[in-house]
Amino acid sequence: MLLFLSLIVDWSVMMKRVFSMVAGVMVTALLMSGCGKEPAQETTVPKPNAAVQPAMPADHPPTEVQVEPAEVLAQLPAGHPTLEGLTDQPAAPAGHTMRPRNEPAVVVPDSVRARWKSVTLEVTLGGTKRELRVAPGEQVALGQDDLSLLIGAFLPAYMSDFSQATSDGDELSNPALQVSVLHNNAVVDKGWLFRDYPDFNTVSNARVALRLLAAHD
Fold this sequence. Notes:
The structure is a single chain. The protein is an alpha+beta fold. The protein has a domain at 78-83 and 96-216. The chain has two helices and ten strands; from the N terminus they run αβαβββββββββ.
């Protein structure tokens, strides 16, 4: 009986030793496997707003939007002077009209010069509106702010091919008058007044407003 009990005790002690050895081996294996692993790397997520545009070909046109001046959208009447040359110029002084770089030459036919002697203008200055009858080549003082008008060519049937302005006959089919606004005898504005198309007049001064009303033979 004693021998049997002694065998049981010895078996129990041996099993505990085996269990301890197995546990030690497992712990060692886990530690060794953990040391060999590299730390996880962070993944960089691109920002949603960081859009990448593909490279344009060498001959690709520029992508900027070109905006045309609003004035060129209006349909001009037949024979109206060209607006060419009004862009890419420095700003005009306050109250003055921007003039084209290359104005058409003005040719007055002899028949027109012989027939039409004067014109009537509506002049608005300082809140006062009045009518003036003037002749081509005449300079008229306006009596205020040292302003005067220099009356240029009158063309009863204005037409232009961009190199010159002339009259297509001597009838009043598209009457126009060239006029300059002077301040202390220096030209500050110059352009054309159209009787039938006053919205397309090319003389616009902050101090004086002009309108062509009639022509007289």
